[in-house]
Amino acid sequence: MSSQEKINRVNELRELINQNNYHYYVQDEPVIPDAEYDRLMQELIAIEDEFPELITDSSPTQRVGAVPLDSFPEIKHEVPMLSLGNAFDEDEMTAFDKRIREKLEMDSVEYVAETKLDGLAISILYEDGQFIRAATRGDGTTGEDVTLNVKTIKSIPLNLIDVGLLDEKYPERVEIRGEVFMTHDGFNKLNDKQKEKDEKLFVNPRNAAAGSLRQLDSRITAERHLSFFAYGVGIVEGGTIPETHAGLLSRLKTWGVPVSPETMVMRKLAACFEFYKNIASRRASLGYDIDGVVFKVNRLDQQDIMGYVSRAPRWAVAYKFAPEEELTEILDIEVQVGRTGALTPVARLKPVFVGGVTVTNATLHNEDELKRKDVRIGDTVIVRRAGDVIPEVLKVVMERRPAKTVEFKMPSSCPICSSDVEREEGEAVIRCSGGLYCSAQQIQAIIHFASRRAMNIDGLGDKLIEQLVEKKLINNVSDLYKLTQEQLSELERMAEKSAMNIIAALNNNKETSLDRFLYALGIREVGDATARSLANHFGNLVAIQSATLESLEEVADVGPIVAKHIVTFFSQNHNQEVINALLTAGVHWPDVEIKTEQPLQGKTFVITGTLDSMKREEAKQHLLELGAKVSGSVSKKTDYVIAGSDPGSKAEKAHKLEVEILDEAGFLSLLGNQ
Ligand code: JCF
To answer: pLDDT tens-digit profile of 26-81?
Structure first.
């Protein structure tokens, strides 16, 4: 690049970054993924590092965040709020560790690891243990006064706890810093509400948290289920804090301040990598978004020796996960037909590396979602792939919509078998009405039957099943057992040996269990857990086949809809024929022993109000397991009403009808006595 080209690029990058800062921080509505933003920033930093004469005061590299909104008062941070330097791979972590060991002249240094929450940094000032004010980080020097909003976050103490030990007492003035974020639960609740009110949905928990924290009306914030974990302190006056970061985190806990449960002290880099991998593997089940792991030098005196570079401490690093969101283009939109006939619009993408793999397809879920997001062929979109979840198209980057895009309409007949499609009332899904006449549904049903948690037939892969159906060698799952080795070995890419193995796998797995068999049948809404409940409740297939809606609903986790799917499935002749053919082919299993001790058999319960020790659904499960019935409304037939706190009208009715009312303690002792 010539120097003129460098200057042009720097200006271009600054404009792009400023635009995106505005979208991200002011409007809480990013138009590009974080990874793309980071790359722009990294490129600008790299050029400015090389040519410091190009740096200006207003370059976005000179501030960490964005302009505070006018509408919140400003707060100047007495101690600047820093960001963190990043590491993206083990080499960069190794370099981080090496820098520290060299500077401290030590063979090994103690680190503290903690999850890096994907939320917003805030600072809370306490004086004499009392919550005084709270501020966002803003640009690191000046933030916004969000005191009223932060006060609505229930996990943040308004008074620090004084445990009475002089050495452990909070300082007279102490500023606690941490991350405000929204759990997946909180996020889903919020978007459900937004949907009900026909208001705009939030793209991800981070934006939802940002949008909620920066509400001018704190009553709105209060409804938003925000969470907080502390990770450090700023001002400390009139008192002391522990000598290590790990000690500080425990001390914060004794003051009643929430701290992440995922922290660990370690010395070796290998242990850091192990912690990182462990967290990465549990990332999806934490219940909140994290985007990496933070490693900090544990001893505060060693932190002081390390000091700071312009933007971040040299004693800490954020080891980031591969980004889960990336930009790509929609090449085409197609429709897939699933096992239950559901038509799913699927975007064919320009290949993109996201969440650690190259993605070429992403689901658009259903017609409503497609319309809501207004996704068109030719659009640039944000694709998300989190953990093992199917990649999805999150949103269109409207700023990049080309002049010519092609809208997509869901078909009115099945693209595979041409049967009519139907959309049930209240459902978002369009379904092919062809049933097992539709070869797509046939194929998916057989793939499901052979899958690991069903009949677990090794070697019988998706592609092979497709061939078998297309060549009309099989129509349904029972035909699998009529296949011969000769038929299989004539297929494309099928060696004699593999054909033999598949026949052997089919024969060897004829002995199964009732729950696997039920699951393998592919009854709508009957997953492996429900199949297990059905097997344990009824004990044998005949009992399930002849069960009524009412008796099915007595099974734990079977509601009216699932019950209906089960009854419908067994009432269809072709399903009965397939089951008989499977039994004739030799598929078998032992009967399940039903627990005969059913102490609450014949008793009907109604649960009302809030229980402290468990959710109502759990209480129901316990009762069902003991043979009781659980009903939604109180009548003369009700034997017991279990009343938690705020029980409402059901308890009143029970009182009138002279039905016995148990409080939570009474209920627990009833459970305990069985
Ligand atoms: O969880 C975080 N996002 C997080 C951010 C955790 C930390 O320990 C941090 C941080 C930002 C700055 N520590 C610093 C010093």
So the answer is: 565 778 888 898 899 989 989 998 898 998 866 777 654 334 455 789 999 999 99
Closest atom of ligand 1 relative to the 118 alpha carbon: 3
Dihedral of alpha carbons 466, 472, 477, 482, sign: negative
d(C-alpha 340, C-alpha 421), whole Å: 12
Name the strand (E) or helix (H) holding 210: helix 205-213
What residue owns the CA closest to ligand 1's atom 12?
Answer: 83
Spatial distance between the Cα atoms of 674 and 671, rounded to a whole number of angstroms? 6
Instruction: Count CA atoms within 13 Å of residue 175 on its CB side.
Output: 18
Beta strands in 13-170 (DSSP E): 74-76, 86-87, 111-117, 120-127, 130-136, 142-144
Cα 168 to ligand 1 centre (Å): 23
Residue 316 in contact with ligand 1 by CB distance below 6 A: yes
What pLDDT, on the 0 to 100 scale, is given for residue 64? 42
Distances (CA, A) of 566 to 573, 577, 580: 14, 16, 17
Q: What is the pLDDT of residue 114?
A: 97
Whether the CB-CB separation of 107 and 119 falls below 8 Å is answered with: no
Which letter does DSSP use for residue 588 in this model?
B
Among 230, 66, 63, CA closest to 138: 66
If DSSP codes are grouped into helix, strand and coil, which group holds residue 349? strand
Q: Which residue has the higher pLDDT, 277 or 70?
A: 277
> 474-478, 544-548, 586-590, 649-653: which range is least confident on average?
649-653
Instruction: Decide: 423 and 343 in contact? Cβ < 8 Å.
Output: no
Residue 387 has pLDDT above 70, yes or no: yes
Alpha-carbon span 241 to 513, nearest angstrom = 60
Asked whether the beta carbons of 256 and 160 are under 8 A apart, the reply is yes
Among residues 116, 320, 395, 650, which one is catalytic?
Answer: 116
Taking the model in full, what pTM does it have? 0.67
- In the residue annotation, 98 being an active-site residue is answered as no
Residue showing tokens 């658009």: 364
Structural tokens at position 378: 């030719």
Residues 41/44/48/51 CA torsion (nearest 10 deg): 160
- The pLDDT confidence band at residue 596, using thresholds 50, 70 and 90, is low
Tokens read off for 572: 């269809």
Rounded Cα–Cα distance for residues 392 and 354 (Å): 11
Q: Per-residue pLDDT for 136 more than 80?
A: yes
Query: Which strand (E) or helix (H) includes residue 94?
Result: helix 90-104
- What is the number of helices (H) and of strands (E) in the chain? 24, 22
Strand order through the sheet with 226-237: 130-136, 120-127, 173-182, 226-237
Tens digit of pLDDT for each residue in 228-269? Answer: 999 999 999 999 999 999 999 999 999 989 999 999 999 999
Give the residue carrying structure tokens 């501030």.
63
